[in-house]
Amino acid sequence: GIRDLVRSRGLGDVYKRQNNDSGENLFNGASLDGWEVTDFDGHGRVFVSDSAIVLEKGAKCTGIRRLEDFPKTDYEVTLEAKRVDGYDFFCGMTFPVKDEFCSLIVGGWGGTVVGLSSIDGLDASENFTGKMKRFREDEWYRILLRVTETKIEAYINNVSVVDFDLGEHKLSVRSEVRPSRPFGIATWKTTGALRRIKLQKTD
Asked: Phi and psi (nearest 5°) for 56?
């Protein structure tokens, strides 16, 4: 089964992280307590329905931003996200990396690109972290982001999609999602839904 498979690939810890109840709940399943609707021009509606945060399709970005202090390194974020309607990213997670910021894009550039934006000025469609992955509409995907002093890692449904050594690279975010900083999640011309958002400090 999947448990044996992930153990055989050395991913048992990832499976455990994505399927347990540890960490701090960042979403209570009922309200946007602890969040604000990000001030994107022309954003769509944001509301809670069926224990999920719905980000309705806007002119460009629609999203939420965390109001409370957020760690800069040594943390993991886990969540579930799905594309409800549209053809672009349904989870653009902007996050701190020490004194810089970066975004994990899931389903961008026509719906299939996964990667980090931006590295040395190149976004996920242009840099070496970019990968192609097909996403089914109205299907939940488990996403794990891990930030350490030396790396950024990301997994979707327990499969590694980003394994990036920070090194001397310069991190940044595209101008469209800057309002998400320090930590926020957005969609692009797409209706998405989020649930089970958790933060785990790893230091």
From this structure: -75, 150
> Distance between CA atoms of 32 and 66, rounded to whole angstroms?
10
Write the pLDDT tens digit of every residue in 45-81.
Answer: 999 999 999 999 999 999 999 999 999 999 999 999 9
Judge whether 173 and 103 are in contact, CB under 8 Å: yes
pTM of the model: 0.90
Contact present, 100 and 171 (Cβ < 8 Å): yes
**Distance (Å, whole) CA 104 – CA 144:** 10
- List the structure tokens of 77: 């974020």
Q: Could you tell me the two tokens for 173?
A: 């975010």
For residues 130-149, give the mean pLDDT.
98
Structure tokens at 95: 């996050």
Position 18, amino acid = Q
Chain-centre distance for alpha carbon 103: 7
Instruction: For strands 151-156 and 46-49, give the pairing.
Output: unpaired
